[in-house]
Amino acid sequence: MGDYEECGEFQAVCINAGDDEGADITFEYNGKRITVSLFASSSCQASGNSQHENYIEDRLIRLLNQAVTADDEDYDELVDEASDVILGLGKILFSQVAPPLPVSILSDQDLHSHLYPKTLNFRLETVDNKAVIFPISPDDTISLPDTAPDPDLETDFQADSIIPQYSSREVIIQRVFASGNNTVSKVQVGSQTMLCKAHRAGLQDPNLKQELVSVQKIREAGINSRAQIRVPSLQGYVRHADSGAIIGLLRDFILSGVYGGTLRDVDVSAVPKEMRRKWANQIRETVDELHEAGVVWGDGKASNVVMDQSDNAWLIDFAGGWSKGWVDEELAGSKEGDKQAVRKISEFLSVA
């Protein structure tokens, strides 16, 4: 979204689409959350043709519907295209309701305020042949208003009673790595610095459930074998401050070494071959230990390996998924896919 850097800080958060009758897009603008609802024009509804695009809202609905089923790269392009149109029409209005905030206000925000900010609702509609954006009430949006995650949701995940639990208001954000409905951040809880992964929908998000199940298995395997598995240790659960539902996890924060934070950040040509071989061996050994514990890494790739200050390699991200170029789609979520990722990482390190 470089075209609009001068009018504010923008980040797409999520879309709701898949229905020709309407869609919406939610984004963060200067620290505030904005949702723009799109309803199909009466002409489009009357024609019954989703390709009828005399009105901007119909074209945007089509773009967002295409994004729902697109791969990651195409998704970003489609959402960016829709966002460019919306920002072009609404940048003055958005800057009025969400002016830039001083850095001091953005720092030391608690996780709850970051993950569940007040949402400003707008609608884009063509009126008298001119596309306009105007505020609407939450009751007039295309999607139902959010409700707090249900603490009694039936799921096969069971929290370990030994592991501490913290309110989302106790978790203070120090640095945000990924934002939106799912957030990854460096946080402080009391005197401890940790990494937090939290999901707005809680355990309704299958990725959170999968990661929690996996990291608990890894923790139990490490305790039973008394061996260190090079995966950051689970240190706590995060619960919704109001409903009490589990919405995230806290784990050890790995301080970066001299070569960089993740393996993807490393200038491989500047690393001695013996060090690269050591990393490849550590990654291979850790994946073998995961498989023995009944855990699949899933999204194995260089950016999901972090390097600590002692130049050791640690594996992160057990929420599932796959990345093109690292694991074949048909092998995603399998031990065979993990082994393929290990081979690709060894090639990346030039030690295959």
From TrEMBL:
It comes from the Eukaryota. InterPro entries: Kinase-like_dom_sf (IPR011009). This is Protein kinase domain-containing protein. It comes from Sclerotinia borealis (strain F-4128).
